[in-house]
Design a protein that fits this description.
Length: 125
């Protein structure tokens, strides 16, 4: 019984802490969008504004959903894809040290997708 409690506490920490940290990267993107400044990178060739919007979605909006545990598995997908693009497209030619953070986030969001939110989430209420 105690082991089960620790698993769900661990899943909550895995959801909440990395998502809150990732939001610090997404908030400036949200501010850019709100101000109407859509000049951004275009790593996958869909245009600057759509790229900025998708990055903000994966780094700010989806982490909010993951923190509260609402539609957690679905919300983890855009965050994982955003980190995949950051690591393997945007930082493709950079050394491992430059892409390491994106790889860590990518791994965390894939694990959240695979394991789900745990008991301490809106999804489980």
């Amino acid at each position: 019984m105690k082991n089960n409690l620790l698993i769900h506490l661990g899943l909550a920490l895995l959801r909440i802490v990395p998502s809150a940290l990732l939001m610090t990267h997404g908030y400036p993107k949200l501010q850019k969008l709100i101000s109407g400044d859509t000049e951004w990178l275009n790593p996958i060739g869909i245009g600057q504004a759509p790229s900025l919007f998708l990055a903000m979605l994966g780094e700010f909006i989806c982490p909010i959903l993951i923190i509260i545990g609402f539609k957690t598995r679905w919300a983890a997908i855009p965050s994982a894809i955003t980190m995949f693009v950051a690591a393997f497209i945007f930082h493709a030619s950079d050394p491992l040290g430059k892409k390491e953070l994106a790889l860590v986030y990518f791994t965390i969001f894939v694990v959240i997708f695979l394991l789900g939110p745990g008991k301490y989430s809106v999804d489980k209420k």
